[in-house]
Amino acid sequence: MASDLLDSTMGNMSISRKILIACGVFALPLAVVTFFLIQGLAGDIAFTTAEIHGTEALKSLSEACIATLTDSDSLTLSQSLLKADSALKSFGKFIEATRGSDIGQDASNQGGTEKLLMKISGVSRQIGERAAALKNGSDTELEAERHIILNLLREAVTICSRQSNLVLDPDLDSYYLMDVTCILMPSFHSSLMGFQNPSAGDPDSCEVLMKLVHIPAVMESLSASMENDGNFNGIAPGLKTSLEALIAELADFQSQWKEKLSEEQCRKLSELAADVWRKSIVQMEKLLLIRLAGFNGHRKKVFTASGISLLMAILVVYIVYLSIRKPLMSIAAAARRVSTGDMRTVLNENYNDEALSAVARGFNSVITNLGQMITGLNDGISSLRREAEEIRLISAEMVDESKTVKKMTFEVSRDGRELSKRLDLVSGSAEKVLTSINQVAVATEQMNSTIGEIARNAEMARGITSDAVVKAAQSLVKMSELGREAQSIGEVTEAITAISEQTKLLALNATIEAARAGEAGKGFAVVASEIKDLAQETAGATERINAKIGAVQRATFETIEGIQGISEVIARVNDIVGGIAAAIEEQSTTSSDIAYSVNQAAGGFREFSGTLEESSGYSGEIADRITRVDQASENLSKSGARLEKAADILGDLSGHMERSGRDRFNM
User: Fold this and answer.
1) CATH class of the domain defined by 356-664
2) What is the C-alpha to C-alpha distance for residues 271 and 626, in angstroms, rounded to an integer?
3) Of 272, 181, 283, nearest to 233 (Cα)?
4) Whether the predicted model's global pTM rises above the 0.90 cut
5) pLDDT per residue as tens digits for the range 311-344
6) What residue ranges of the chain are covered by domains with CATH 1.10.287.950?
7) Percentage helix, strand, coil for the chain under 3-state DSSP, each rounded to 5
8) Cβ(81)–Cβ(131) under 8 Å?
9) Could you give the CA distance from residue 530 to residue 532 in angstroms, rounded to a whole number?
């Protein structure tokens, strides 16, 4: 689906538009790469610009720090502080102008920028207040303010160093130079202030002050800077000389640190440190300017290289376009010559591009085949002219034959109409006979249905009587079993009667014996009397049971005799119903045969009637068709005349085409 859409889209475009699309496709990745390169360089330029602004602020702040340590005139120090305040305000404006960028570690978000600006403003305000106070104050007040001013200036140096990326830049050209400029020298000046003015602490605590300034660490850091950084060795020889002098002075001071630092020593160390600081800042600014110029030059090179690459790509694409257009134009010119009838045109097939060679071969093949087709067409036109003459002769014969056919069809049509009338009469009589047979068939079907219903009822009655015979036999067996059980019960009651008689005799004997015993046998006499009464009641009950059982036995025997009679009657009824069912079955078969025969007769006569109707219809249809044949023969006669005329026109046209082919095409 996607490939079809692409083919249809590209197929509707001109070659020039396709070339433009190819240029766009080639230029797009180049533009993307250029964009990201420029973006990266823009970030580097912004980073370096921030570092340069920080270095410019450090110039004024370092001079103010140096003045705070060395100047004894409050007015001069006030002017230095005002310059430092102005530089700090300018740096604050730069930070505010770059709000929201990635410059500085505290300026990456809105809240950090606001806090930083407030911090810069606060330090600047304090420095300005100190400068104003010194401008109108005395030298005594100056000595008391030096520590406060120097701490404010160190804080300002820290802010500028951090927010201008000097202590954050991973690509900085000289870490040692940054360390000396932004960290070591401000700390060293603050330490010198402590040695120069012991009133800030205990006058006898020089050892503590010595530990605070870490003189050995300072010397080691300066020595490492000279050994490992080319900025101190060869690139900036003046800076190297100043560092060597400062290191020598620090070594001399280290050997005498237990004594109080003299004013001359402090002045000398201050001058050496100030010289190192100034030259370090100048060298740092020089490196940053070189770096910024390198970034700008790199950006120009990227723009230039991208432009040259784009122009070269356009030039290459244009050359390719011309190389494609030239053979295509030659093919178009050959096609125009062919369109004028020059079939002798042949294209050069030896192109460097296989596709163009294939197009040329295909074009030559088309021209060859087209020439063969035109030659064959001319031959066909000649044959067509000859055939047209033959068609004209045949059409004349068709006209004569169609007149004869018309005469014969008229006679056949007349006889067919007469036959159709007679078949219509026979068909009417057959329809009446078919109606009568259908009525007989319907009556026979109804009789057959009634006999079938009787046969089903007789069969059902036979099933019922058969079931009654079986049930009666089962009842007879059950009643016989009941008679035997009743007889068994009679035997049991006879045994009970005999037992009761024996019991009465025993009770009589017991009574006699009790009477003989006198008073001692009275209790036994009462028991014997009770047994006698019980035996008499048992005998009476047994007689009543015998009477009931006798009645049951008589009723059972009578029931058995009745069931036997019923069974015999049901058996005779079953035989009769079976005979009826068999007779009805035979009658049903006979009536079915009659109905089948009647239906067969009706079907045969219906088929005969249908055949008559079809024959009548066919005869009418034959008559109609003969009429149409008559009309067709008449039309054929007219068509023959038109065909004869068309054959004349075709002969003239084929002659004209034969002459035109010879005159127009050069084979």
Assistant:
1) mainly alpha
2) 143
3) 283
4) no
5) 887 787 778 777 777 777 777 777 777 777 666 7
6) 356-664
7) 90, 0, 10
8) yes
9) 5
